[in-house]
Amino acid sequence: MKIAIPYGRSSMEIDVPDDRLLAVLRPTEPDGAPEDFVLQRAIVERALANPVASPPLRRLASGRSRATVITSDHTRPVPSRITLPPLLEEMRADNASLEVTLLVATGMHRATTADELGERLGPSILSRERVVVHDARCDDDLRFLGKLPSGGDLWVNRFAVETDLLVAEGFIEPHFFAGFSGGRKSVLPGVAGYRTVLANHCASFIASPRARAGSLDGNPIHADMLFAAEAARLAFVLNVALDGKKRIRAAWAGHFDEAHRRGCADVARSAAVDGRRKAPIVVTSNGGYPLDQNVYQAVKGMTAAEALCSDGGVIITVAACEDGHGGQAFFDALAGAASPRELLDRIGGRPMEETEPDQWEYQILARVLNRVEVIVVSDRCPPELFEAIHLRWAPTFERALAMAEERTGPDADILVVPDGVAVVVETAREASR
Predict the structure, then answer these.
(1) Low-confidence stretches of the chain (pLDDT beneath 50)
(2) What per-residue string of b and e applies to 363-376 under the rule 16 or more CB within 10 Å gives b?
(3) Membrane-spanning regions, if any (predicted)?
C-alpha cells in the first residue's frame, strides 16, 4: 500500500506491505475544508459574527485607544493571511482609529525572521500594522502579574499587559502535554517570560499522566495557562481548525476559555483514533512544514506513535529537520547523556525552580527513547546530528524499514499515523483522565 506522509512543504510516498499493515490512523474530518481562500475567510467571518459567551469584538473594541493581537510564530501553520484581515476589520468596524500591535508569540523559540513574518502575515499587513516579536528573555519588556497556581512567577510581555484590549488568534490541534493548542496558550507560553515558561513546563508537570494530548481537565499545565490568560485580561480569541492540507475547516471566536473549549470538543471528535492495537513498528510524521523544521518540534509527532508502539518496538518518523536540532539546550542535554534512562533519572527529582530551557522537550524524547527505538527519515539534515542524541537516521523510508526489521524481525506488523500531531490516541486519552 502506498501512503503519502507529510514531509517539509510536500509529502513522501511510502510503500508498506499490505499483509503487515494493521491500520492507517487519521483524523476523521467531518466536512471537507474549501480550497478557495474566500470561502475559508467566510468561515472566519461567521465565527466573528457569532461569538461564544462574549459580546461582539467590535463592541469590545469600541472606545478603546490601543489593542494588541497575539499571533503565532514561524513554527505554527496558522493561516494568518486569511484570519487576520477579518479580525482586524471587526476590531475597527466601530473604531477606525484603533491602534493595533501584532505581538508574535514565540514562547521560548528563536525569533521569527523578517522573511518568515512576510510569509505568515503577507506584505499588506506588514506594511500597515505594527509588529513586535516577543523575546522571553528581555526583562525590560516583561511585567509581573502575580503567582501561578503552581507557584511560579507570572511574567508577561508588556505589549500584552499595557493595552486597552488583548485579543489572540491561533489554531486548535492536539498538543502533546497541554492537551490542545490555541486559546489560553497564546499567553502562556506564547508571550510569557522565560522564568514563567520554565515553571509551567517543570519536570513533575510534564511527568503527570494528565499532561497528554487531548487532556484538559486535571492537567496542571493547562491550569497554569488558564490563570495566565485571565490575569493578562485576554478578552477575545479567534481559533481555527485545519484539515490535512492546512485549510480552514472550522472556526470559533469569543471568550478565551468557552470558545476554545468548544473548538477543542470538535477537534477531539475528529482527532480520536483507536489505540487499542499496538504494533512493533509505527510510522508517523510531524505534519510537514512548519512543524517538521527541526528535531525539537518533531518530538510532538513521536508521542502519538509512542502510545501505539509495542515495548521495545521502533518508531519511524518522517521529518525534514531543515533547521537542525531546534534548540542548543535540547541538543546538549541529550548529547551529554549516557542514555535516555540516565537523563530521565537526572530530570526526575529536579524542582520547579531548577527547570532548564528545553527540559520538557528532551524529557519527553528521553521517555520515548527509554521504551522504543526512533529512526528519523530525513535527507535534509546530517546524520551525525541525530546519532549524537540517541536517535537513528535513514535517508529513505525503505532504509528505515529495513533498519527497523533488524530489531523487530521481517514480519512485524506496522501501524501508520501519517500526521502524528493531528491525532489523539483514545487509550492514552482515557488513561490521562
Answers:
(1) 428-433
(2) bbbbbbbeebbbbb
(3) none
Spatial contact of 241 and 250, defined as CB atoms under 8 Å apart: yes
**Cell reading at 413:** 506488523
Q: Do 248 and 242 form a contact (C-beta atoms < 8 A)?
A: yes
Identify the helix (H) or strand (E) that includes residue 252.
Answer: strand 248-254
Residue 372 near residue 311 (C-beta atoms within 8 A): yes
Contact 300, 286 (CB under 8 A): yes
Q: Are 197 and 188 in contact (CB under 8 A)?
A: yes
Length of the chain (residues): 433
What residues pair up with 5 in beta bridges, in sequence order?
12
- By the 8 A CB rule, do 274 and 305 touch? no
State the Cα–Cα distance between residues 287 and 387, nearest whole angstrom: 22
pLDDT digits (tens, 9 = 90+) for 41-77: 999 999 999 999 999 999 999 999 999 999 999 988 8
Grid coordinates belonging to 63: 472606545
Asked about 201 being catalytic, the answer comes back as no
pTM of the model: 0.91
In the set 109, 134, 255, 325, the catalytic residue is 109
Cα–Cα nearest to 221, from 199, 198, 209, 205: 205
- Helix, strand or coil, per DSSP, at residue 108: coil
Q: Of the residues 134, 175, 222, 260, which is catalytic? A: 175
> How far apart, in whole angstroms, are the C-alpha atoms of residue 287 and residue 298?
9
Give me the pLDDT at residue 77, please. Answer: 87
Q: What SS3 class is residue 4?
A: strand
Cα–Cα distance for residue pair 73/78, rounded to 1 Å: 9
The 8-class DSSP code of residue 112 comes to P
Strand partners, 10: 7
Q: What pLDDT does 346 receive?
A: 95
pLDDT of residue 31: 64
Q: How confident is the model at residue 429, as a pLDDT? A: 42
**Does residue 109 have an active-site annotation?**
yes
Q: Are 194 and 356 in contact (CB under 8 A)?
A: no
* Predicted pLDDT of residue 30: 66
For the chain, list the domains and their CATH numbers: 2-25+274-431 (3.90.226.30), 37-270 (3.40.50.11440)
